[in-house]
Specification:
There is one protein chain. This protein folds into 2 domains: about 1-60 and about 265-415, no CATH class; about 65-260, no CATH class. Helices cover about 55% and strands about 20% of the residues. The chain has helices at about 1-10, 20-65, 80-85, 120-125, 155-160, 200-205, 210-215, 235-245, 255-260, 260-300, 300-310, 315-345, 345-360, 380-405, 410-415; strands spanning about 65-70, 90-105, 110-120, 135, 150, 165-175, 180-195, 205-210, 225-230, 250-255. Strands 2-3-8-5-7-6 form a 6-stranded mixed β-barrel, surrounded by 4 helices. Strand 2 (about 90-105) and strand 3 form a beta hairpin. Helix 10 runs parallel beside helix 14 and helix 12 packs antiparallel against helix 14 (about 380-405). The longest helix has about 45 residues, at about 20-65.
Length: about 425
């Protein structure tokens, strides 16, 4: 295919810019640019979706757990025994008990609902990363009987409190009196503020010592459950199934893929839909090559006829125009991959610059789970996008090339 390649390259590098040839060159350039923009957009969007998925998982699991063991009866009495039983699994790195309940927090005239989590500060650090997210105070300041509380940053801001201030915790578990059922009320002192970076946790989660939580919710020596950390979070479903026979019959095991399935399923579905939508954009740009190639075939009919009279076969003519179209598509694909990777690797810098330049905020942290635009480039995504763009370009060149191969030399040269 030496001479087919030479002719195809020569047609692609043609520099005539006037009349019909100039218009054909313009259409080819627009097609190449369209493919580049479509490929770049696909790579950037997929990278951002990957970043969202990874960031969401990281932030959720920094305060949640890989596996939770709970009782179907409402409380676990022997959590130490359960912790010793599950520790026999080689993938379990740490276990920590917790108490969970709803409460109303009040400071001055401001009231906010929150999820209360009673924790053992020493053990909690082995299954969660609160220590790395503390903005004021520390988790170690929670002591049994000290009635201290650690608030999320948005919750503390809404209540208007800082470290050292007091908040009133009101629980729905009431105290029966002759005057009726009254809610349980206890004053706690703020000993720390954490900021995870997810509005859901920062605005609705409060931590206290597990002993204080047991008194507040009248659980005696029982706990709500046990949280486990694994050496590989992706093994959580399998490990959960392995642990179930080791636990009491009334115990329930839930891994993070079940507890937060809706979040990750939504991100996965959105990623697939965005991939399909943006692939259509690449397809539209690729099939613009059809019109450019048809115009080239019409313009080059005399050249085709001369090549045929010199012995070129229809297959060689087809190869010449396939090479020309593929070169245009390949150039657009490579340009798009380069531009997409450049933007995807720097999106965390580019987006804040645009926000500052125009005075806008794309991701309001009071609306979205994540207020920053993360990006994670994955090689399989880039390869898939490049291959799809190349295949679409190849398909777009087949029909014009087939028409070129069917040109009748006598008809083409009749008026020359």
């Amino acid at each position: 295919m030496l001479y087919e390649l030479v002719v195809g390259l020569r047609y692609t590098r043609a520099r005539r810019r006037t009349g019909r040839n100039g218009f054909v060159s313009f259409i080819a350039a627009v097609s190449m640019l369209g493919i580049a923009l479509g490929v770049a957009a696909l790579i950037v969007v997929l990278s951002v979706m990957n970043g969202f998925q990874e960031e969401l998982r990281t932030r959720i699991l920094s305060v949640a757990s890989h596996i939770e063991i709970q009782s179907l009866q409402g409380g676990l009495a022997d959590w130490q025994g359960i912790a010793r039983a599950v520790a026999r699994n080689p993938h379990v790195k740490a276990a920590a008990p917790y108490v969970s309940g709803q409460a109303m927090l009040s400071a001055g005239e401001v009231n906010r609902g929150a999820l209360i989590r009673g924790v053992d500060p020493a053990l909690e650090e082995t299954v969660a990363d609160f220590g790395a997210h503390m903005r004021q105070g520390s988790l170690a300041a929670l002591e049994p009987g000290g009635f201290g509380i650690v608030l999320g940053s948005e919750l503390a801001r809404a209540l208007g409190v800082r470290v050292g201030d007091s908040v009133v915790v009101i629980t729905p578990q009431g105290t029966v009196t002759p005057a009726g059922t009254l809610p349980r009320v206890k004053t706690f002192r703020v000993v720390g503020v954490f900021e995870i970076g997810m509005f859901e946790f920062d605005s609705g989660l409060a931590l206290m010592d597990i002993a204080d939580a047991q008194k507040l919710y009248r659980l005696d020596d029982t706990v709500s459950g046990v949280r486990l950390k694994l050496d590989d979070l992706f093994l959580a479903p399998r490990v959960a199934r392995e642990l179930l026979p080791l636990l009491p019959v009334d115990a329930e095991v839930r891994d993070w893929t079940l507890s937060h399935a809706n979040f990750f399923r939504a991100v996965a579905i959105e990623k697939r839909m965005m991939f399909l939508i943006l692939t259509l954009i690449v397809a539209v740009a690729a099939f613009n090559i059809v019109s450019a190639q048809m115009m080239v075939v019409t313009d080059k009919q005399a050249d085709i006829a001369i090549l045929r009279t010199q012995g070129a076969s229809p297959g060689s003519i087809l190869a010449i125009f396939v090479i020309q179209g593929v070169l245009v598509g390949t150039a657009g694909t490579l340009l798009g991959v380069a531009g997409g990777l450049a933007l995807a690797f720097n999106v965390e810098t580019v987006v804040p610059f645009i926000e500052h330049l125009f005075g806008v905020q794309f991701l309001d942290k009071s609306v979205y789970y994540i207020s920053e635009l993360p990006s994670q480039v994955q090689t399989p995504d880039v390869v898939t996008v490049a291959v799809i763009a190349f295949v679409l370009t190849l398909l777009a060149t087949l029909y014009p090339s087939w028409r070129a191969a069917r040109v009748n030399p006598a008809e083409a040269l009749r008026y020359e």
